[in-house]
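Supplementary notes for students who missed Thursday's class. We covered one full example, reproduced here. Read the sequence, then the structure, then the short commentary at the end.
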Amino acid sequence: MSDPRMSSAVSLYKRPVLKEDEIPPDWMALLSLIFGIVGTMAKYKLGAWLSLLCAISSLANIRPKEADTKQIICSCSFAVMSITTNYVAKKASKES
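Structure (token representation):
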């Protein structure tokens, strides 16, 4: 329902068109990279899981026009790599 007092003052919202250089950064993807590096290098399991959560959140909230495939692949691969190094590498080192 709209306000009937000033129907002439109502204007539709138009999203501004952004150029490729003006696309805002994806902060969740950046956090995913940072947590993935921390989880891989420092062997922190919490960093690895936070990396995976940030990567999933970034993928869920991305717009098709703003999708940067390199950034998506990089953040997802760091998330998966940090989890595998924390869990699989520890089992392999215990067995030897």
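Commentary. The mean pLDDT is 83. The chain has one domain: 25-95. If anything here is unclear, bring it to office hours.
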